[in-house]
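Risk register update: the risk that structure generation would not scale has been downgraded. Supporting records follow, first protein first.
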Amino acid sequence: MDRKDRTGIFISLAAAAILFSILFAGIYFDFWLQLALSILILIFLAFWFSGDDIKKQLNLPAGDLGFSILLGLVSTVFLYLIFLIGNDLAIFFLSFGKSGISGIYGLGENVDSRMIAFLLVLIIGPGEEIFWRGYLQKSLTKEYGKLGVVIIILAYAGVHLASGNTMLILAAFAGGVFWGLLYYYYRNLWANIISHAAWDLAAFVLWPF
């Protein structure tokens, strides 16, 4: 990895930390809309520093599309079940479990669920996968192997520290592990995008925990 690549990764991680810190600081006109705008900035950085590679990943051969959709949807169901069980255990065993989960869903209060669904499926879910996995994880694993996956998992959970919500941080860590490993073993960005977008839609709009 040359100096330019390292600089791009450093700038991108710093940008993610700053954007999420501002988001969770309460300086926003609407949480979901500001999150979407933050993700758009991160997508821009990903394409700025690694646009050609991301375009190659998104340009799937027609024969791989069906597999990508299937893998994405099956992984969504699997992750949803993991979270369903995890949330029940958290509420039962952790004193802050119930309030932490309520705090997560409180972010979407008084917001049209249709707008949330639109932002999650078309911007937030896909954008996070393009930025965290398609750009950063791929760049770091090329240089550091599995350590690159660990770095991105910790960074993905780390940017949620500013929320002060332990349940949200744990959820981000669990999601980071799942989508990080999914991408590492299958190298299929579309599967990750479908999985993340579908999970967001299920967890925040269709069947909240």
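Supporting record for the second protein:
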Amino acid sequence: MKTAAILAIILMLTFAGSVFAQTQTPQVDAREKNQQERIKEGVKSGELTGGETRRLEAEQGKIKADEMNAKADGKVTPAERRHIKREQNRASRHIYKKKHNARERGN
């Protein structure tokens, strides 16, 4: 009887762990943090204007919303991961272009 109860607990924990792992997005989270830091540095250095910053932040917000939608059903599919990665790649290019254009924030 004890063995059956222990086995049942182990199976439940294994199942719970696999469900939890399917909604984890560590690469997405790391890139999100990195991109936020790049935007923050651009603001601090004056490379980004107020309008550029708002647009980049809005783009980051959309990516975060798409990530939350992907996690909503309890499983982030490979297609959802590809979609988010494409969005992050595009956002990274936008950050680079905005930081390296001729516009500067007025002092």
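The mean pLDDT is 88. On this basis the risk owner (M.S.) recommends closing the item.
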